[in-house]
Design goal:
By secondary structure, this protein is mainly beta. The chain has a domain at 163-231: Histone H3 K4-specific methyltransferase SET7/9 N-terminal domain (Single Sheet). The protein is 8% helix and 59% strand. The protein contains 1 helix and 20 strands. It has one helix spanning 2-20; strands spanning 24-25, 31-38, 45-52, 55-66, 69-78, 84-90, 96-103, 106-114, 121-127, 135-140, 146-153, 156-157, 159-164, 170-177, 180-181, 183-188, 194-201, 204-213, 216-222, 229-231. The protein has a 20-stranded antiparallel sheet that branches. Strand 1 (24-25) and strand 2 form a beta hairpin. The radius of gyration is 28 Å and the shape is elongated. It starts with a helix and ends with a strand.
Length: 232
């Protein structure tokens, strides 16, 4: 009987001491140590992580309340030196949806998005320090082949954008300038044969557009203000 009582006392002291180390503040009123919070009016865990005198450090885990159970939805890995964190977002079954770096609430650097039914890439993109897309952005087919390749400058499409078939055949190319369609465009069939070409000027077709069939010019259309449709 005495052994049982002693065991219960030890267990109580251990649990009390452990609970005392959760959700604590330092002498300046800043969060310090392990913190865990639950969804309002529930015992379902909402997040857990560690603070160092008010600054998040290490890995924080965030959950959704699904059928009164915590389901991991994201992790954020903090460090002590700045506000940047490495973030992973998860599907309800635990699969990683996307991952990359955030600076506060801004996406920065490289971000990866994954196919719904595999761990292969769906999208690969880059963000500048302002949180705007910058540099090349790729979209992939489930087989790993590039589906789209575009270039961004400070959040706006700029340069050549190219679309591909699953067999790596170019299907179309556009030219963007400062976020607008502006320049030469070409369209191809699944065999890679040119079927149409022309220019855009500030998002609108402009000048002579040419249309091909079996490699031969079949039609032309003049999209200049004074132009008239001309059929070959």
């Amino acid at each position: 009987m005495k052994k049982v009582i002693v065991s219960l006392i030890v267990l109580f002291v251990f649990n009390f001491g452990f609970s005392q180390n959760i959700n604590q503040f330092d002498e300046y009123g800043k969060r310090h140590g392990i913190w865990k919070k639950t969804f309002k009016n529930t015992n379902v865990l909402r997040y857990e992580g560690e603070f160092l005198h008010g600054k998040e450090i290490g890995v924080f885990k965030f959950y959704k309340n699904i059928r009164k159970k915590p389901v991991l939805t994201a992790t954020r890995t903090f460090n002590e030196n700045d506000n940047k964190t490495y973030v992973k977002f998860f599907a309800t079954r635990g699969k990683v949806i996307s991952e990359g770096t955030m600076d506060g609430k801004l996406y920065t650097g490289e971000w990866k998005y994954y196919q719904k039914n595999s761990d292969k890439l769906l999208t690969l993109e880059h963000y500048n320090d302002k949180g705007n897309l910058d540099g090349e952005r790729f979209v992939y087919y489930p087989n790993g082949q590039i589906a789209e390749k575009q270039n961004y400058v400070d959040g706006k499409l700029d340069g050549v954008s190219t679309w591909y078939s699953t067999n790596n055949v170019v299907l179309k190319t556009y030219v963007y300038v400062d976020g607008e369609l502006h320049g030469e465009s070409k369209f191809y069939n699944s065999k890679g044969e040119l079927i149409a070409e022309g220019r855009y000027k500030h998002e609108k077709k402009h000048g002579i557009w040419k249309y091909y069939e079996n490699g031969k010019l079949k039609d032309e259309k003049n999209f200049s203000p004074e132009g008239k449709y001309k059929k070959k």
